């Protein structure tokens, strides 16, 4: 290698300069404190849970009714240990951030209690996820079987992670639900905040670009397409100009609503009544009563037979 | 660890409750039946095919014309075995879902025949993918070389996986094409249904959020930007209210069409004539003749010098 | 296995046919030339840099101020070696593509010089990334702590990779910056071209579908939501119909601008003045002066109490 | 890299020459036939079995009486599948070698029957291995606990693998027992042929270099030290000069015998009577009655105060 | 697969039978108690320590004096954490075995104290290991450089692990030293008990089959060849017939002694005086004064020109 | 974790002390020089070579005569690159150790030349290894097939690695042959110095503890059992007391000789004539003419019906 070893001699000095920024530029390092939840372990928990919720599809082949108890029992036991530790870390870190003080041992005990409470929710989660899978099959004419939904539909992947994350958040687990929802976001392009409440038989088709905000409330049998935003209109601030966190900023979607691709629905007071249909690319910031159809007014398009100059460069294929 | 071992004693009971849901809540498990196609093997097939289609770019360094035959021959041989097994699994599962019955040995033999038929399509695939790579280079002023296209362009990654998946579907392989297209969707944010027919010299730029439906027909030299939806207007149902699956629901795009970002084109009868240009964010549900330019009418924007109250909270940076 | 070994006998012939396309169909293979930058090594460089920029969050647990120097020093040293080699490869390949000729040893030496110059930018990068993390916390009412930003926000992940890629490009490193930005695009759905210039305290929320073009110039304290495109209006061609590469094609966004979801701003001469607000789904192709608010004119929606026939099929859930 | 690409041009020709030897030089390749047992799978079976036989020591932490059923049940199920496949391969290959012919399906069925028969032997194996572990603790004054035996004693590792291999051989499984005993040999330096019959409470201390031949018969409570050979005196040949395989060629060791380091006992008719002691380095080719002690006659050593010339070079440390 | 699923139905019953043995056949399981030291972590500690003791030879390439501090500092920090946890586990388990009771927190604190005390011994260990490496170079005419010793000599590998294990044992760490010495035994065939005391400049050549007992005392500049046993003559028992553990049972070897291959020296009272030479295959159970040479008396061999019948079968190659 | 963070504050100081020993205690570090051969790469070369020499047995399943060319061609090409680099490193390091000086580029070129020369020896190696495998089958009555020899016999593994290492040494490659022979030693307990010359049809049975010295010369059809040493009698020194390296120190074994377990044959002038048989545990330091049988004289054993007191403690099992 032709690289010059003498030039490397500046690296120790550079290292010192970088480390110096760790004390000067605070906030974005995590040094000298208790351990944070471990991302890889959190992801492995999601994977374990998917194996339990949809047994036989992914990591382990050859499962049948005679051996599935062993497989699930083994996973549940491991999940108990992993979740206990990770929730304890999250609780400790949350207290540090908020300035609360608790006894160390408490964290482990609370973590275990939350882990067990969560695991008891799994049968219920399976029941509701079965309605979601069914809704996908019923709602997509390109779909041939429920197996295809479980195997291939990003919408089911996103709602599965969301239902897991939402349960943990409901139990008061800090930090971890957001890590889970971001993981699902990364995998699917669907960004559902763990705080959102979503009813059964929920179906997101294609899904890339969907954003569902923290305080959304969504009913049963709702169907959403790619690029839909259920967002906030604006953020309140307190007297000091700081954001007010936690109040309802995102819309309510009632039962049997369909929202087509790239529609945008904004505002905490916006309610879309049940059995309504929101058309593709609609931009809605107020409520509509049940059984309403909202579409874009016949969009005024400029249609010209001649291609305008500024678009022509694109067409250099023709020649 | 301070976690209480006695609390874990409830886990076996919980395990039994979860397993009980496997018989109560059907559909979303795969227990006691024949093996499904294995996702990891399918992904490895895509990776092997990319190494064959674009040799020298990714997994294996040091390929040259003198050794590439060995490398490719080795991959082809392995692909034959992997595809044979996976296609056989898919065929068997498809028969199970649809209630057909076939002899077990048939599946392996049919799988092998389909695998070999597919592998014979590779030279043709390379030829057409070379036109896609060229189209990307010609169509993006930020691009410096074809190498950059092969290495860095998600559009080429998506169309590569699509062309593979589409060939398999054309040969009658169930299930696996959708697994492949979902993998590409996850990697690139581009969701092309394996059923879509796409001509040569196809280029998707940026690509996130693009959705191309099952029955789309796309000509040669078509160029598409991020967020474009080529979708269905509505779904037909039969007398029992069930979706009618399989008929043409998505638009036809003729040769030399350019579709800019976030445009939405819907409907199985919608035809965009050749050499047309569809502008950014246009929403189109009817056909246009060749050589047409469609843009949004000068959008009516509300432009105010004063910032409205409901947007002000955002601006707390100023102070 | 029931597969027929005799059928495999055609594979060698097929292999030869495929290899024959490597000489017939050029461009999309990389055979017999010098090594390209290695994607996996480039990704590992990004991961190393994230560990240095945000120590204690991801790969390595148990970092504290007493041991972080060792950890960082070790990473810096390894980065020096990896970047030197990879940049040298990129320079060599760039010369090949452009037809320039240089001495072999030069590449290593130049690669090392660029690697060291880049590493010296790390303290500065940390300082500016701290403002980005702060902007995310200040700008999202759903966010509880800076830790959550570093751990969970795809926007921070995207801007981190961008700032790294942008520095390398500024130093004249070919190829690698685009590989890095595509990696970030794949992870987050946010596509920022390494050429874009972005000021401090930058925040992208949710982010899926965001596209920021090569010649964008973005000021300080800018905030962008999902689906925003900062793109080109049209591409210039030279006399031969080839694209003119490199001139300013993308907009300028001044300080303290907020751009809401799915807004599209196009054109190299378009300037959004400071302290402006661009509303959700706005489509803007001309400049606006500072302190301007641009929203869609009250969109004309068709709101009907009765659901139109063509949408009814969707509602088969009701029964 | 300075290596000359033109020199590599001879490699294809060389490859052809090597491949030509595959038909010319037979026997030591395995091409075009059915699959052999897979070494890595066989090793994973041994590891699974060790987890079942000695739960809690190695791969899986946190096992307790409440979850061990899941863990073991999962392993047993996987072992059933792995052993069924591997035994079927071994049976098929054995028929090929010996020129027998059987129906393909038979192999799987026979493999499964043998796998299940073997798994039913596990409770018995645990019982006898517990006597082996106890014998190690009782027989080594340096040993502090049974845990230490299970964790650290190569003798227990060797006898565990042997008892597994011996059971499989007893059931008529070809090939695999030898693969297992060689694996144990590689790990421990103790070479026990799967054919050897060994009673309970068996202890090998240190063990490196121990060889126990195919037709050995060893009673209960036998203790052996490193370097002991229980071998054959000579091999019989048939009229054609070929070895006669299978008859008893190795000694019989009765109950409560101790054999010290590096002793050699040879011959199929040699019987060491119970409660006998064979001293270190003894070379024995005939039987001894029970309760016999055999030691080397006071070895005649040459002891000189002066160091002979030919040994002096060793002592150049002195100077 | 032709295996019969109904036959698998007996596996749950078998699982229950196996689990039943966990309560019936005690001792050789580790269920429901505190965690044992983890073998894989212990091995990784040895590997880390080798990187520190002999930097630049194995896992990490490109170390130089400018970056080695970072590398070593990072390893030391990690070792502190790993050793603290593992020693704490070993102490807790030791108390359980011996029936002692201590406070939980104590284990961690004691573990840390022992870990730090051990780490402080590393400079001394390096100094003495340098004498061992030198002794190997000086003692083997086939050796070309010290690099070759560090890279290729199993004797150095064994003594390195021994010196580490011996230090830990000296500090009162239970269990782990034996795990380490067994790992070295498995790698090299050299079995040195951690209790043995060994002076500097120690060299074992080839080494397979060497056994050095717990209470051996070995001086400086001692050289040992393969197959040498330094063992016990016999074991004392107490009134109940139980072994007396811990008293001196193995020989003392003074400075500058050479012991040739396969020699056996036994007994706790046996002292080999300094500058003595013990010849190959000698069997010695009593002391010899300094400067003594002990060789086998000219062994009486039976040398016949005619090959005896019982050996002839071997020679069937001749024909 | 209860470990005290303040105690860790001494670790940086300790790190400095350790690093200080790198300059004080030389020789056993490799800092600041050119790269050494990489052990893991060397091992992967051995594994690749085994796949070429014995195709179809280990890493790759499903090889047949139709695809083996691809597999072998791919491996040969990779071996060329790996060996070229590693031999260049070894040559550079050898020059450094011996104080020679060469041009940098030379190393790569010489490395490539040696790599190619070595690869051309593979057909010859296969031919001779086939005789070794045959000799094992013919020489072991417990062996059922040649497949078993290739799969399970450590003797074949050792001689394979030796023949590879010996070829490299013959070509003048420093360092790497010893790394290979030590790897084989570690795997099999058989220690053959790469310098030893060994004829065809060589068989080592069991093998643990076998040592074959650097200057041994072994003819055809030789058979050796476990624990055999072919060693040096004594080492010559020069006037300064340094070892004379390189002259013949180890015995010559002529064709058709059999050496039984634990025999020791020493001395560079010792020649065992062809068709001789050396019995188990014989200790031989002089030559014997062809067709000689050497056995231990009927060993004088002390055989007592009563067990001596010093051995009794062993027998506490009886009670």
Give a quick rundown of the structure.
Six copies of one chain form a homohexamer. The first copy, chain A, has 319 residues and is α/β, with parallel strands linked by helices.
Structure report:
Six copies of one chain form a homohexamer. Chain A is an alpha/beta fold and 319 residues long. Chain A folds into two domains: 13-192, serine acetyltransferase, domain 1 (Orthogonal Bundle); 196-297, Hexapeptide repeat proteins (UDP N-Acetylglucosamine Acyltransferase, domain 1), CATH 2.160.10. Helices cover 41% and strands 11% of the residues of chain A. In chain A, the strands form three sheets. A five-stranded parallel sheet of chain A has the order 1-4-7-10-13. In chain A, α3 crosses α4. The radius of gyration of chain A is 25 Å and the shape is globular. β15 (301-304) of chain B pairs antiparallel with β14 (293-296) of chain C, so a sheet runs across the interface.
Notable features of this structure?
homohexamer; 319 residues; alpha/beta; serine acetyltransferase, domain 1; UDP N-Acetylglucosamine Acyltransferase, domain 1; 2 domains; 5-stranded parallel β-sheet; 8 helices; 41% helix; disordered C terminus; serine O-acetyltransferase activity (chains A, B, C, D, E, F); transferase (chains A, B, C, D, E, F); amino-acid biosynthesis (chains A, B, C, D, E, F)
